[in-house]
Design brief:
InterPro entries (chains A, B): HTH_LacI, LacI/GalR-like_sensor, Lambda_DNA-bd_dom_sf, Peripla_BP_I
Oligomer: homodimer
Structural class of chain A: alpha/beta
Shape of chain A: elongated
Radius of gyration of chain A: 26 Å
Strand content of chain A: 5-15%
Order of helices and strands of chain A: HHHHEHEHEHEEHEHHEHEHEHEHEE
Protein name (chains A, B): LacI family DNA-binding transcriptional regulator
Pfam families (chains A, B): LacI, Peripla_BP_3
GO molecular function (chains A, B): DNA binding
Domain HTH lacI-type (chains A, B): 2-56
Amino acid sequence: MVTITDVARHAGVAPSTVSYVLSGKRAISSTTRQRVLSSIRVLGYHPHAGARSLASNRSNVIALVLPLRSGMHLPVLMQFAIAVVTTARQYDHDVLLVTADEGPDGLRRVAASAMVDAIVLMDVELHDTRVPMLRELDRPSVLIGFPAEPDGLTCVDLDFFQAGAACVEHLASLGHRHVALLGAPPAVYERGTGFAQRTRAGFLDTADRLGLSGIAIACEEETDQVAASVHALLTRQPEVTGLVVHNEAAVGSIMAALAAHGRRVPDDISVVAICPDETAERTEPALSSVLIPAEEVGAQSVSLLMRKLEGELVPDASLLAPRLTVRASTAALPAGHAG
Amino acid sequence: MVTITDVARHAGVAPSTVSYVLSGKRAISSTTRQRVLSSIRVLGYHPHAGARSLASNRSNVIALVLPLRSGMHLPVLMQFAIAVVTTARQYDHDVLLVTADEGPDGLRRVAASAMVDAIVLMDVELHDTRVPMLRELDRPSVLIGFPAEPDGLTCVDLDFFQAGAACVEHLASLGHRHVALLGAPPAVYERGTGFAQRTRAGFLDTADRLGLSGIAIACEEETDQVAASVHALLTRQPEVTGLVVHNEAAVGSIMAALAAHGRRVPDDISVVAICPDETAERTEPALSSVLIPAEEVGAQSVSLLMRKLEGELVPDASLLAPRLTVRASTAALPAGHAG
DNA sequence: GATATCCGTCGAAGCGCTTCGACGTCGGCC
DNA sequence: GGCCGACGTCGAAGCGCTTCGACGGATATC
């Protein structure tokens, strides 16, 4: 193993000088710096991470904590994770992956052993058991999602309220007067998942505000149950011509169920989804959608975390504005339906 | 911060004794051990990971390296990752997530800086640029997937050849004589991805061996291109009654395209897929399928890695046997088709 | 009963790095 | 021309841990 002493000897300087070249914490003459850097290159020197963290009290590693329940969609989770890693690398940090099945103790462990300098919590729920632990730890942290009591915590998320609102506004602008939301499975609402509830609130409030009739119903993910839900909806509320779907897994089944009922999209009914672009584009017809900006959220949370590590103050809540992409699944209300 | 010296003082022993209690590397009397352990609990001691890695030359962290191209399916990747983390924790190790967009240098960095003791490479391709780097590093490693020259490397994967074979055997046992494989997108074959090619080989060889007519074609993921492929297949080979699908993303579109052609599943045509159970069960009708045992592969690779870290010798290749689950999408060949 | 053996514990060295204070040198300033 | 501050570099201490050799005491061996 090549050590800092080897580099120092090779360059004809003291070890501390090598350290200062690397950290930039003291001025070093350009000629010395060049000499040191070239020795580093020649010898293939890589500082020992453990030694560095012991001496400096900084590991340059952040923890990425996966959600408790994998109710959330795996692909979106992965997009988050990739964005977090990529962004962390831009700040010269690495990412330790922590699963939640260790529970809050996993958090304490990686923090107390000084493995990580800071923590990103993914997919935070309203009553998340990891949050109290986070509070008693002294490490900077960022949450993706909002808990019930976000005071003093830094949280990042898509603005789901605005996302729900944007969908309704889009449908309203096309002339639709009767809209429905097919949401997450009932269990997701029951356990108080913030993003599902906020989408529903945005949907209902906006329908109300714009004078539309709006109905929000939960929706399971299995094909047959989806079919039943769609059936119930179309039977009881046949006047609905605008559908908002906030359930990525059920998108396919919902489209199939609509077809089975003889409702053509977008001729008879317009559909707008809240889901990744990928999903929206793989459907026939391609869905107008509000995307979950996983990359953006991941990158943003790491940037905030780095600023906190620098001692900077950052805003408590960062809500990323929804962006609605219009595709083939929404159209103006046909004349016959005008209400 | 609580240090080993604090614990030693509290328990009335030497720091080295505390260390030996924790590591078990020397005999310690039961009374001393109890006293030390209770001090550890009372004080809330967590060993400093950096100090430990500096002194012992072991970080108790492994690297999990994501694939170069995310051509692979994100959810499966995430399942792998979760399984790897969970298993690593059982061996008292943590997991550092490394993305491949750093390239092979990322590998060198985490290895040379002693951040990680060992490396798991996910989704290895036939000509994977990370493999040569792995060879010049001295760290133990395990690959998920097989490169072109796997000599001396430890590789784990589903046995895709057998998976392809199992699908054909299943169809053959139901009386089907004309089978087709709808595989990965052409680009995947072109860049020499092992699992796609081995599935195709298993499919073709077995069809041949059992005297079936078998045709393998690549298949894009976009709905309209899938429809075109299915159309071409059914038009040119109308006698096909057994379909093997090895393209998770296209499953839905393929089913839709079959329906559009008036082919009922499984009455007119049987379909068996190679995909996660989740996908198979979310389709209508539920698909008979060979699953990609992500959890098993992830767990297995970590177990092997730990054995290598202990200096044990492990087999070069571990192929996990495919398990075919029969669901509603396959049925006996109708009498009319008997060939 | 003396010697060899093992068990349980201690003390000290050292892992590779950062950082602080010290020191020599130079230029600017009155 | 002497003083001061800034600059560039060095040396040493110390971060918290593991591990090796040493050592006293109990146990086994002849």
